[in-house]
Specification:
The complex is a heterodimer. Chain A is mainly alpha-helical. Chain A has 6 helices and no strands. The radius of gyration of chain A is 19 Å and the shape is elongated. By secondary structure, chain B is mainly alpha-helical. Chain B has 2 domains: 56 residues; 34 residues. The longest helix of chain B has 26 residues. The termini of chain B are far apart. Classes of the chains: A mainly alpha, B mainly alpha.
Chain lengths: 198, 94
């Protein structure tokens, strides 16, 4: 195995580089997945039937909490990667832990939001609008949930094995995923919530 | 401690918070739909670029060209899908 010492650990071998490139291509596919969800959302946005409209059900406080929490978690995972490059295992784990706590906070608020929607009669079957709204938010939420478990696995692996070629590579790829979820949330925040409440 | 908070990333974070505040102005201030949408489009896309380039280090590896080609391609497909559908299914009905 050729280890290139001039590069950060996560790019250390050819295989590592290819893993990262492969993940970027996967993210490209994810962009298109969310694009189709946004397309359907914009088409069904005004098809509210006898159900409520976005302006009636959206609330600024939970949305704002979700946005700030996810934005901060995106910052802390960036700091985790920075610490990883400085070979500071402990700091990496701390930043990763903060990221996971923030991710869990985001998810709790989103689950609260979904329960609230259910109680006011907003379900998948209510109207075209609520159906696509919950599908889009749910797809993002499912991604965050998956990311949370993935992050816990990475945390345990770094704790057990330290920062190696493999764990550094996995952590970097995980950070790409987490940043990507934040980017998608920005679009949900802007073009679903803020647009709906404007 | 200081090296754990690189200035580039701290600035990026502050900048994205600032963009969020600007985006929020469409909710807290009275403005026309067109002005509001313009603000949202600009802030959302700048945020995305900040994340991709600053936090995700899109431009630092040797595969930079392939990564950006993938990103441009998927962004193009995304925009064509969204605006193409809007053009044929929403806007012509108004």
């Amino acid at each position: 195995m050729n280890i290139d010492q001039t590069k950060p650990l996560e790019y250390g071998t050819h295989k590592n580089e290819m893993n990262i490139l492969g993940f970027w291509i996967f993210l490209g596919a994810e962009i298109m997945l969310f694009a189709t969800l946004f397309t359907s959302y914009f088409i069904y946005e005004n098809r509210i039937g006898s159900g409520p409209s976005g302006a009636e059900i959206f609330e600024i406080t939970p949305v704002l909490i979700e946005t700030i929490v996810l934005l901060t978690s995106s910052f802390t995972i960036g700091l985790a990667i920075n610490a990883m490059r400085l070979n500071r295992t402990k700091a990496t784990l701390w930043f990763l832990a903060i990221t996971l706590v923030l991710g869990a906070t985001f998810l709790s608020v989103e689950i609260y939001e979904f329960i609230h929607y259910y109680h006011i009669g907003v379900t998948l079957q209510t109207s075209g609008f609520t159906g696509i709204l919950l599908t889009t938010l749910g797809t993002h939420g499912a991604h965050v949930t998956f990311g949370l478990f993935w992050g816990i696995a990475i945390f345990l692996q770094i704790k057990k094995r330290g920062l190696t070629l493999e764990t550094a590579n996995k952590s970097f790829i995980y950070s790409l995923y987490w940043h990507f979820l934040d980017v998608m949330w920005i679009f949900i925040f802007s073009f679903i919530y803020l647009k709906g409440m404007m | 401690m200081k090296e754990l908070f690189p200035i580039k990333q701290v600035n990026g974070f502050i900048f994205s918070l600032l963009l969020t505040v600007i985006a929020l102005s469409v909710y807290f201030m009275d403005m026309s739909f067109k002005v509001g949408m313009t603000i949202l489009l600009i802030t959302a896309f700048i945020q995305a670029i900040v994340q991709f380039v600053l936090f995700m280090h899109a431009g630092e590896s040797e595969d930079k060209r392939t990564i950006f080609t993938t990103l441009y391609y998927s962004a193009l497909i995304a925009l064509v899908t969204i605006f193409g559908s809007l053009l044929t299914m929403v806007w012509d009905m108004m």
